[in-house]
Amino acid sequence: MPEKKIERGHGAGVVKRLSADLKLKFPDIGVSPRNLWHMKRFYERYCHVDPKLQRCVAVLPWRRNLLLIEKVTDDKEALYYAEKAIQLGWTRDILLNYIKADAFNNEKHLPKSHNFSEALPEVLAEQADEMLKSSYNLGFLGLIQSVKEKELEQRLIEKIKHFVLELGRGFTFIGNQYRLEYNGKEYFVDILLYHRNLRSLVALELKIGSFKPEYVGKMNFYLGLLDKLEKQPDENPSIGIILCADKDHLDVEIALQDINKPIGIAEYQLLLPTEELKNLVLKEIKDSNEEQLMINKQFGNWTSQFVTSNSQLINTGNYE
């Protein structure tokens, strides 16, 4: 494919012809002119990056790759989102939600708050630390106004698949408002889960406001009941997670200092203000228009090496 044709503005015609030729040879996969331009962008974006990033984007579904190319320019950030999308099975919409929430920078800067190293054996404490995030993104609930704790819990249960994916690998949902009866009294855990790798019950309590020290005492009590009433002899101690709108790391440290049950406290991102949602929509429209102008005006250097380098992608047909 002569480069000078593209440089003279004939790129669109060349790509249409290439698309027609490829459709004859590969009739069952997506080789439209638009997809070929996207392949060019994919090649240019990742041809010189770290091999680890190349391996990740090679197995990431196509539409998620296009989203990364559009939204993320930093290689480390792209690797973070690509790895998370693969590990946790994020859909394109969930990936977009994380990118908009700036999960990469938020997770990097927020410290984790827990007492796992004091309350669990060393190996189990390390696994529990990996299990807990400093912040959880609940934007998939689609909330634009505040809700009460019971409504938040109900929304999470309605979208339990998304919630379990957000929590991370290994979680299994057991129930919500899980009833514990002891000494003639009833107690209810907001959400009860089981972590297969840790082999531990995980009690999760939802709090709409900021962290309060008394939440730790209540969770410590629930974990004691779970270990006494529900934990199997071959299972590890139950673990608690308290989800709050925000937390002060120093307050959490003091609240946990004399607690003997493993408890982690994390923040969640829940809703976007209406004005911010409007701005996001306008930005999406602006970005889309700029992308179309770039495709129409800038054809770049496209040689036969591009087709050769992307033959594997074309043959796999991974266009999800």
UniProtKB/TrEMBL annotation:
InterPro entries: PD-DEXK-like_domain (IPR053148), tRNA_endonuc-like_dom_sf (IPR011856), YhcG_C (IPR009362), YhcG_N (IPR041527)
Protein name in UniProt: DUF1016 domain-containing protein
Domain YhcG PDDEXK nuclease: 130-280
Taxonomic superkingdom: Bacteria
Organism annotation: Sphingobacterium alkalisoli
YhcG N-terminal domain location: 4-105
Molecular function GO labels: nucleic acid binding
